[in-house]
Design a protein that fits this description.
This protein is of the alpha/beta class. It contains 13 helices and 13 strands. The two termini are 12 Å apart.
Length: 375
């Protein structure tokens, strides 16, 4: 079988979200299925480390697709031409988009359709692109793979997709997210938090991620407990981050809140492993990888009771209303004061995390490629 793959999110040093899913799943497909040929479609010069085996043929297609106008050009012209010339048996597109003009059978990975729920949090041109194309993409695909049962049900509700053509996979966790020894935890706290314990958030600093309410809740927590605990926020400031900046400026505990910006993967694992708790109170997620990474690090989780997050965390986290600052602060207080609760969440996390692996995701994607490629 000859499998074409959209690999435009394989960018060195920027493997986040869909890029990470592409990397972990496609690498396994290439390494475990040497009987197949893979054609990788990049939209810019690629790093040789992304050519995972001798059965990979890398192809660069112009233009670099990072704007809605260029999305159309890349998917509807460049990809179509390449598919017609190279004649693969099936096309895998792991980043929510596909080509409407391509005649080839396609497996689409849809991670979420957050734009349908929070259109105001998406820039104008991207919003118009998603609203017009996303329903068409999901209806055209021969097979759809989602990363959670929540996203599957969301596609059925929002776009009336036939349930029978949707398979549910997952995300996984990279091996360097693991528990830290006490000495290493102390070293991380010394480096980042003045030797004090800290709550940890990682992800884009964006309204949907709810960092502004997390900061307000941290303020309440500090006022109630008068503890030396810090709040560390790792991630780039994204579009419409004004609410977060306003919440920080209004905080009475600015000195205890640190914005770390983008953090390299291995350092991110150290920060997660040394955290007192992971506080990921997002308003909406197709999966929510940070809560899984926390469970793999034996770190207790406070997260939202919405979208896919209850499905991912199970009984291994405290679930709160993401719109209630008081509820978030109360969960922080509970986890700070109750050592038995912390220990119980960590033990439950050891069981819950076993449900989500990159190998499981790769196996499900491969099965759907075989189904789609059938005559």
């Amino acid at each position: 079988m000859k499998i074409a793959v959209n690999t435009r999110f394989l960018i060195k040093g920027r493997l986040e979200g869909m890029g990470l899913f592409t990397y972990e799943v496609v690498r396994r497909l290439v390494e475990q299925h040497s009987e197949h040929t893979f054609i990788f479609f990049f939209d810019r010069t690629y790093d040789p480390s992304f050519v995972f085996g001798k059965n990979v043929e890398p192809v660069v297609l112009f233009p670099p697709a990072r704007h809605p106008f260029l999305f159309v050009w890349w998917f509807e012209w460049s990809v179509v031409r390449a598919l017609e010339e190279l004649k693969p048996d099936v096309f895998l597109s792991p980043d929510n988009f596909l080509s409407l003009r391509a005649k080839l059978k396609t497996v689409l990975v849809t991670h979420d359709i957050a734009h349908a729920h929070f259109p105001e949090q998406v820039s104008f041109f991207h919003r118009k692109y998603y609203q017009f194309f996303a329903p068409k993409f999901n209806r055209k695909a021969q097979r759809i793979v989602t990363v959670s049962h929540f996203t599957k049900q969301d596609l059925i509700r929002q776009y009336q997709i036939q349930p029978s053509k949707i398979a549910v996979a997952c995300n996984g966790c990279r091996p360097f997210f693991q528990p830290l020894a006490e000495a290493e935890k102390r070293h991380v706290r010394e480096q980042y938090a003045d030797l004090e314990p800290y709550f940890f958030y990682v992800g884009a600093v964006h309204p949907r991620k709810n960092v502004h309410r997390l900061i307000a809740a941290f303020d309440q927590f500090k006022q109630r407990t008068e503890t030396p605990v810090k709040l560390l926020v790792a991630g780039r400031f994204a579009w419409k981050a004004g609410e977060v900046k306003a919440a920080f400026e209004a905080s009475s505990f600015k000195k205890d809140i640190k914005f770390l910006g983008y953090v390299e993967d291995t350092e991110l694992a150290r920060l997660m492993g040394a955290a007192f708790a992971c506080t990921y109170i997002s308003q909406f997620e197709g999966f929510g990888v940070p809560v899984l990474e926390a469970m793999y690090c034996d770190v207790p989780v406070i997260t939202s009771n919405t979208s896919s997050l209850p499905e991912v965390v199970g009984e291994a986290g405290l679930l709160v209303d993401p719109y209630s600052v008081g509820a978030i602060a109360g969960a922080m207080e509970s986890i700070w004061e109750d050592e038995n609760l912390r220990a119980d969440l960590i033990e439950k996390g050891k069981l819950q995390r076993q449900k989500f692996t990159w190998q499981k995701a790769a196996d499900i994607v491969y099965e759907n490629l075989k189904i789609a490629a059938r005559p």
